[in-house]
Design brief:
- The protein has about 425 residues and is mainly β.
- About 15% of the residues lie in helices and about 55% in strands.
- The chain has helices spanning about 5-20, 70-75, 275-280, 285-290, 300, 335-340, 355-365, and strands at about 25-45, 55-65, 80-90, 100-110, 120-130, 150-165, 165-180, 190-210, 220-235, 245-260, 260-275, 305-315, 320-330, 340-345, 350, 365-375, 385-395, 395-410, 415.
- The strands form three sheets. The chain has an eight-stranded antiparallel barrel with strand order 1-2-3-4-5-6-7-8. It has an eight-stranded antiparallel β-barrel with strand order 9-10-11-12-13-16-17-18. A two-stranded antiparallel ribbon has the order 14-15.
- It is flat and about 70 Å long.
- About 40% of the residues are buried.
């Protein structure tokens, strides 16, 4: 069973925003920091034949900065720490599971800051290199990872045991996840639960009064936007049809940008799935026996379109975006469900029933990723372009990984 990765990512992302509490501090030290951490825990086997593992161990290095300047995005997110995390993880079986090296941007938020400033929540999304992957001859039981490069996600809660101007010592716990976003089978994912101890060395820059001058958020700036996006994704249909195929995407949307920091809107999207099209055109026994209607118009039945709502946190040139949508048309998903949800018995392959769970996945889509804009959001540009990397899902089950390019037109900035 494929791990419902995108659901976890969306929940963690939304949680990281909602747990932030308003500060009563009038000033705060600005500083850069370097963190060194050690983690230990357990790699969870995704199925019974997965290789046996000992304790997972890892090290991480964080390079970051505080964001106490009077930027609207920083105030919106309760002045988080941001930076880059580099990590090494030994999954507990170097011969059959191997290790992973990860690079990811992260956010670090204060939690319950009205009560204590010692509890923080850190979430990151990036990429990883894993040295050992599935091979039916050499690593037949390692169904977790089948590509060397994967998506990587981590979510940790920390408590500061020692706090000082120059040094912090903290303990914490959390989870990590690695998977390839449905680009090759098998892809059950590597999931680990970890305890950690970390030191952070702070290098003070200055003290920034938060109430000394008016900020961008003292008033409510509302900017309308129109946007279009073209994307190129990749996925594989199922284990016995394990060729990498393309997904072509397009969307058009409109919405609002608040305080040059928070972007929300509605969009219409279209997708064409090359794997659906090729599999239907081949008219194999599964298609002719169970889905003969799809063969009448393979191109049309290999498409999907729908609407989605999106929210985006703008941080200068970068942003984090999350989307939730409704597939108005995606007929080939019934075929997708049939070939991916079932079991082999003595009499052959038996697919799971296309019940309520399957119907929800057919109609509910989700999307999470990162964007880079050519012009910083601080300037509230009228014209902007971006490049983005996303993982798309059927509700919480990975659908395909995508690289996209887009254009944003924002005709005017209103002050209310």
């Amino acid at each position: 069973m494929i791990l419902k990765k995108t659901t976890v990512l969306l929940i963690a992302f939304i949680s990281s925003i909602t747990v932030a509490q308003e500060r009563n501090t009038s000033s705060k030290n600005n500083f850069n920091f370097i963190g060194i951490g050690y983690s230990i825990g357990e790699t969870m086997p995704p199925l019974s034949i997965f290789p046996e593992t000992k304790l997972q161990q890892g090290f991480d290095l964080t390079l970051g900065t505080t964001t106490n300047e009077n930027n609207s995005w920083a105030k919106l997110l309760n002045y988080p720490k941001t930076g880059i995390l580099l990590s090494y993880a030994d999954f507990g079986n170097q011969e059959k599971v191997g290790y992973g090296i990860t690079v990811m941007p992260f956010f670090d938020f204060g939690v319950l800051s009205k009560v204590t400033d010692r509890i923080r929540f850190q979430v990151g999304l990036g990429g990883s290199y894993n040295n050992l992957i599935y091979d039916k001859v050499t690593y037949p039981g390692n169904h977790a990872i089948s590509t060397h490069f994967t998506w990587a996600f981590r979510s940790f809660l920390y408590y500061d045991l020692i706090q000082s101007k120059d040094f912090n010592l903290k303990i914490g716990g959390g989870l990590t996840h690695f998977s390839n976003g449905h680009t090759r089978w098998p892809n059950l994912g590597l999931n680990s639960y970890l305890a950690t101890v970390k030191t952070e060395f702070n290098f003070s820059k200055n003290t920034m009064p938060l109430t000394e001058k008016a900020t961008d958020t003292d008033s409510s700036d509302i900017q309308t936007y129109y946007t279009t996006r073209l994307g190129f994704g990749q996925k594989t249909l199922f284990r016995n049809y394990n060729s990498l195929k393309n997904v072509y995407t397009a969307s058009f949307g409109l919405g609002r940008i608040k305080n040059k920091s928070f972007k929300y809107g509605l969009s219409f999207y279209y997708r064409f799935y090359e794997d659906y099209f090729d599999y239907i055109k081949e008219e194999g026994s599964i298609v002719t026996t169970h889905f003969p209607k799809l063969t009448k118009n393979p191109f049309q039945n290999a498409t999907a379109f729908g609407i989605f709502s999106n929210c985006e946190i703008l941080i200068n040139h970068f942003s984090v975006e999350a989307e939730l949508g409704i597939n108005l048309y995606k007929p080939a998903y019934k075929l997708d469900w049939y070939v991916n949800n079932g079991s082999y018995t003595a009499t052959g392959y038996i697919a799971d029933e296309f019940g309520t769970k399957a119907k929800i996945k057919q109609y509910v889509s989700s999307r999470l990723g990162l964007r880079y804009y050519a012009i910083t959001a601080k300037k509230a540009p009228r014209h902007n372009v971006f490049i983005a990397a996303n993982i798309n899902a059927n509700l919480g089950q990975a659908d395909f990984s995508e690289l996209s390019f887009g254009y944003v037109y924002s005709p005017k900035l209103k002050n209310k």
